Amino acid sequence: MSTTKSVGQTPSTLWTARLRNKFFGGLPPERLLPDKQPAYVASWIYVFGVLTIASLLIIIASGVWLSFEGPLWWHTSNVGHFVNSIHFWSVQLFFFSMAIHLWGKFWMSAWRGGRSRTWMTGVLAFLASIGTAFTGYLVQTNFDSQWIASEAKDGLNSVGIGAWFNVLNVGQALLLHVAALPLIVGLITIIHVLQVRRRGVVPPVGFEDSSGDAA
Amino acid sequence: MKSRSREIVQWQGPSKRYDIVKEFVVALTVVAILTLALSALFSSPDEPSLTIKSWANTSSEDFVLAAATELDGSSPSASYGPPYVAIPGSGQKIGPVNLQALAGVRTPVNSANAFVIDPLRAWPNPSSSLTFALGAWARASPDQQQQWASAYVQALGETKQLKATGAADKYGPVPELTSSLLVMAKSGALDGVVALGSNFYQTNYTHSLLFMGDGTYLEDAAVKQNLGGDQSGMMNETGSYPGQAWLWLYTFWYQIPPFSNEATTIGANADAVVWGIMMLLSLLLLLVPFLPGIRSIPRWIPLYRIIWRQWYRNHPMPGK
């Protein structure tokens, strides 16, 4: 067993030094971008985490393109409709990958060994993604968004959220969808990935002592 | 113990070379190709939005009845409660807690004025009969307005026609108001007036969508597309496209009793109760690592042995 408590740490009262020690103490370069992994990292289930991130990047890229042209562009332009299709299908792939990733991590008890924060940031990313996708459906500016807004308002109003988040206000939904919510999802995702890099990939059940011998 | 729990335990067992940057680039390429292929093959849904104009032209009776219910205060939006209308005792509850009422009226909507009277007043060249009707409505007491409009709503419901006939004093100016609004709506002018109000810019469609929701036109169109509330509508998509499948559990509750039965207390408060259940389940999902029993399920149902089968083949656990 090794610890990283002393890695790169300079005792200091400076906030800057404390922040540096905290970040790089737990994430030296060889751990941030490792070139080797434990031998047990050998399953297709590991692919779905990186597929989720890859899908998120496609979502962001296509979303940025759509945002340059405005919310109504894709109704009248063939190129716009194709970019919207990329946005639409990458969202579907994103949630498909994330659902398998989440279930995989559940059955692996991936929170073991001090990895509860990794699990929790993953769940927060999932919940924030649902909110982001929901606002995306609200800003399609077509019949689907009309109906989803009409239906969803009752749920949100019933618990008081609708008093602040008015789903019938497409301007509010649009700003949340292209600004605040992607920022939140992006930040949580980065923290989640850094947690994975910091703690490493959870070992198989029964091999928690890190030596490779069964506990 | 507290400091020990913060220690990072690194794997000291056998390792192998692993290029995570290459893995990421390959994954990004695969997803990009897959997304482009799906987009080229299947495109994406875009059912055109409905308008007040299309509502008035295709479902005139429904439109006129909705307009009349705005005037008598019986429309869904006029009787909604918070956040649109202050109605004592309204709002859904989770047990004794009425979060809807606690949040208050933050988007006030006077549906009679916003959807009927103010748009008619904005008509640039009103007929003399409309001018007279608007004046009569303005001069009448709220009780008189209610009496006229309620009588007309009842008559429309019985006759199922565009304009009920009867003694003028029974319905007052209501028939003229609703028929004039229908003319305005059929021309397309009402869409802009209801949505814009006095603004030049517009991004808020609260009035338009509330008004359209007061008829059956919007819901009928949704039900035809299998988007109704009792059809798991929120997670479906127009056409044959996948929708928000990740909302399956949220929409699931609406399909089963007691949530689907509005005659029960839970059914009458289904929106709030379902939200409460989903918030609780989300919290439980977040806290799985700390929940005795739940966190042990993967040990009881050892699917992890399939995931790590290569490892276990070469590294049997003691006693196995």
From TrEMBL, chain A:
GO molecular function term, any single one: oxidoreductase activity
TM ranges: 41-66, 86-107, 119-139, 174-194
Cross-referenced InterPro entries: Cyt_b/b6_N (IPR005797), Cytb/b6-like_sf (IPR027387), Di-haem_cyt_TM (IPR016174)
UniProt-listed Gene3D superfamilies: Cytochrome Bc1 Complex, Chain C
A Pfam family it matches: Cytochrom_B_N_2
Residue ranges of every copy of the Cytochrome b/b6 N-terminal region profile domain listed in the record: 12-205
Keyword annotations of the record: Membrane, Transmembrane, Transmembrane helix
GO terms, biological process: respiratory electron transport chain
GO cellular component: membrane
SUPFAM superfamilies: Transmembrane di-heme cytochromes
Protein name from the UniProt record: Unannotated protein
